[in-house]
């Protein structure tokens, strides 16, 4: 499938409102546990996802894109329901949230299906999402059993 480089998204989040925008674009992204990297010396947490292209879906296209997401100024990382001993396990990202502590500090939580989550304790919100290039046809439109 051909595409224009101008079709790639590159977004930066510096506050909770910006994170909500990233969350909307990344909803229903899929990744493997092996696609997650914590670099404590750099205070960086990164992951590569296969993002469902919601903008394309609005135009009748069903496709996924390889997208990088990273968070800077990360002090610590905790997870629930994610076993690093199963690197091929597929996770589905549902949402990204922010809980403010002593401003600008707080916790960024990545919520996945089946109750899995990753919580990042951050000095402040500083994140970037960038489409990397490959685009392919998605098998279907993501759905959720709770939807009416």
Descriptive labels:
single chain, about 150 residues, mainly beta, five-stranded antiparallel beta sheet, 2 helices, 10 strands, globular
Descriptive overview:
This protein has one domain. It has helices at 16-26, 54-57; strands spanning 10-13, 29-32, 36-39, 44-52, 63-71, 74-80, 90-100, 106-112, 117-122, 127-137. With 148 residues, the protein is mainly β. The protein is built from 2 helices and 10 strands.
Give a nutshell description of this structure.
The chain is mainly beta. It has two helices and ten strands; from the N terminus they run βαβββαββββββ.
What Rg is obtained from the alpha carbons, in whole angstroms?
15 Å
- How many angstroms does the end-to-end distance come to? 33 Å
Percent of residues in helices comes to 10-25%
Largest sheet: 5 strands, antiparallel
* SSE order, one letter for each helix or strand: EHEEEHEEEEEE
Show unreliable segments.
none
The gross shape turns out to be globular
Find the structural class using helix and strand composition.
Answer: mainly beta
Number of domains: 1
Strand percentage, roughly? over 45%
Report the total helices: 2
Which strands sit side by side, in order, in the main sheet? 1-10-5-4-3
DSSP strand tally: 10
What average pLDDT do the residues reach?
Answer: 90
Secondary structure topology:
Layout lengths: L9 E4 L2 H11 L2 E4 L3 E4 L4 E9 L1 H4 L5 E9 L2 E7 L9 E11 L5 E7 L4 E6 L4 E11 L11
